[in-house]
Amino acid sequence: MKERPLRIVVAPLNLLSPGMAPTKEEKMVLPAYQDTGYGFKIAKLFSMEALESALKYEPLPDDVFIVTYPKCGTTWVQNIVGCLFREGKPFTSAIEFLTHTPFLEMAGADSAKNMKRPGAIKSHLCFNFIPWSKEAKYIFVARNPKDCCVSFYHHTKNITGYEFKDGKFDDYFELFMEGNVDFGDYFDCLLSWYEHRNDPNVLFITYEQLKKDTRTYTLKIAEFIGQKYKDMLINDEKLLNDVIKYSSFNFMKETLNKNVAELAALPRDEVLNHPDLPQGLKHLLAGGDKGLFDSDPNSISFVRKGIVGDWRNTLSPDQNKRMNEKFIERTKGTDIPELWKEYM
């Protein structure tokens, strides 16, 4: 196991930067976060007990982790890997999706211990916090920070428990730039995994690579998790096309949003007594009006757009300039700018 950084409990960071103070006419709305004591925040609706257990999880030799900073392609790769493990078949319900590719920090360590295998574990942790084993495998997906920021904003607005329905992008942009959003600083996470991109048990890819050449990178993912999965796709073109189809954004938007809406509408008692749901997930889904999703099916947009370059519709010229400057400053001395030279 890796050495953990010393845990220091600090007072909550001030979320307001100079110049961010709201006017008398307009009150600033901030997402509902909680400090973890580990140097990063998580959503207030998450269970600290689940997070603590996640950090202490000891990986099994056949574990496959899908790791990203939030809103960088996690759901997409969960569906690709899930289809590979299920021989081209898509997930048929949100519960199946959430228990076969469990979100470690949200659902807790038991969700990983008890998941159906072969399966994959989702995480948003920086490298220095991830449960690490040289025998386990880690797929890390990076996305350009501009699209990530915009997508994370919409995600935060959409999840009921963030209490951010009326939040403004300009305010959220400042939080993102300061690393004061849940799971911490975007650049800290990216750089921590980039340093391990050549480790034999790490596959480092970008969202944009996967978008530009889905077939090639689906085969790379298949080969990484096991040669037999790549052989399976190479020898069966229909199976390869099915994996790509059932993990596509059009399919996920149509089916996963519907499945999540059905899950959100389940009665509280049914959630609490469901045999397949880990305790950490029950805690969220049964959270009433502060839960994970709105019970109105028309409000669910778990999968939104999935396009590259959507930031151009949201960032102001000044915000774009500031993000470029931050990107250059934080990635100086690395090859990271080459990853997104045509997108930044």
Automatic annotation (TrEMBL):
Keywords: Transferase. It comes from the Eukaryota. It holds the Pfam family Sulfotransfer_1. GO terms for molecular function: sulfotransferase activity. Gene3D superfamilies: P-loop containing nucleotide triphosphate hydrolases (3.40.50.300). Residues 61-334 form the Sulfotransferase domain. Belongs to the sulfotransferase 1 family. This is Sulfotransferase 1C2. It comes from Nephila pilipes (Giant wood spider).
